Amino acid sequence: MKKIILLILTTIIVFSADLNNLLNELCVSDDLSQKTKKENAGYVIVYTREDLDNMKILSLKEILEQIPFFKYNEDSNALIDLLYLPFQPKNPYMIKLIINDNEVTLPIGGDVLQIIGQITTKYIDHIEIYIGMPSFEISQSPAWSIIKIYTKKGYRENSNILGGLIGSRKLNEEYISSGFGNENKSYYLFFANDNIYRKNYTFNKYNLNRNIFGKTFVGSFDFNNFELFSLITKFKKNSFIGNSFTISPINNYIKPSYYLFNINYKKNNFKILTLFQYVDSKFYQKNDDILGYYNNKIYYESKNNLKESIYSIKISNKFTLNNSSLFLQGNLGKDLFNIQNYYDGIEYKLQNFNKIYKKSIGCEYTYLLNQNNLFTLSYNYKIDNYINIKKFKNISKKVGYIYNDKKFTFKTFYYQGSFIPTPEMIFINKNLSKIDTKSYSFKAKYNKFYFLYTNTKMKNVIVNIPKIGLINDSNYHKYNNYLISYTYIKNKIKNNIRVWRAYIQIPHKKMIISNGFTNNFFFNKDVWSFYTSLIYYKNNLNQENINLNTTISKKFKNIEVYFKGINILNKTLETEYISYNPLTNSLQTFKAEPIERVFVGGIEWKF
């Protein structure tokens, strides 16, 4: 936990409010909405509709693995956790997911990406990725990375689509969509059925796999200034190793049902965003040997049922006068959750904590001194009231200055704030305190080259102590980090696009960060399209990861066929999973690939 939190906090404010020219420089298509083009904060990379059509991605893991410094990873339950470490709870500050401007998080389940990342992506129009704390206008919650997903609109589609694919190990997917209308009134409907068979592993005599079988429905309706959106997904996933003392599973699975509904009203700079989420997740594990130890008893079977209901409303407006702008927003939220735990058929209840009330207000002021100099000041006040536990008050402040011309950019930011423990952590130790953070960053850009320095100071970092649990470390932690990066984009002719990005980081010796590069190549000619990516990096153990992905497609009037390969060289890094039995003080280790070699062929008919 200590290393995970340090990785996130030392990079807060690292990549912050870039000017519009950076966004325009990196965009490779006019497919983005006007709202997206006007974003001026923390832009890193955007995957346009054209990109996604060429890539034919099967899931978000193909996007996540291209985020700098991250190794795509999954925990022992086969759920997405990019900074997974054995015996540590998932860190919620790592990634924030935003769908159609709505921040989607779960109080106990944590990252909705663990659900959305498992399913098809055919309903997604484009994706934006931000690094660090980009802007309070994008998200009031700090995170190392913010992923914004915008879904397809009927007036952009104006067609029906029927498609399917088959692949390695009997993998298959079938989907259908329909979208029609104009900018004032349109609808979009989508349904998919997924059967994803992944690689089988054997440990001793036990079969371990991460197969997933699910169904997804997406519906959106747009009229005038209103947007109505819903996403429903249900799937069953074999949970691989699970959370057992020993690796001896007889039957492990997770069955989440996720419902998302939102109504957004947008008129010019004024927005009202309402959101409702409901999750019903069932976890089942049964072992041949000891599964766990609870309340002084050994158990071999566990049944866990988690239900969560999340309500939120956000109101915001942006005022512009001459060279200055003021963004104001307010949020109200309510989280309800209920956890039922059964060990060998006996129910064990957790502490009386099942409700959180949230409210926050924030503002961001920017002043353009002239065409080259920008000053920004942000303030956010947030209260998370953990009923029957504690009321956490969080004040975040950020001040920054940016100088920008055609070739050179200088940027410096200072951030001060705190991070509150998650409900999952509170169940372990209800006396945990906030993590106090101060961070300074400096960034210089010349043409395509970037240099970055960050200095971070933290207190009350949450650490996991064996046989004690989670505690706050009262000592101060200081970290310095350096980053050099280079971005190259070439677009000689309209349909020939090459994007190359490389980064080198000199991290503090305790940080878990890697050096590497990502290479993307897009090429379209007549009815053919070609995409390939090469992702290379070394982790802090000097181990190499090489992932080559390729997609080739051809169109025949209203029909498109394609062939895709993932991890073609079969050289991605494995993750080490550890099972520890404290009763016998014994360890069992097992290695598996989060990204496996897969080959698929698909067909899509548009009518």
From TrEMBL:
It comes from Caminibacter mediatlanticus TB-2. This is Outer membrane cobalamin receptor protein-like protein. Keywords: Receptor.
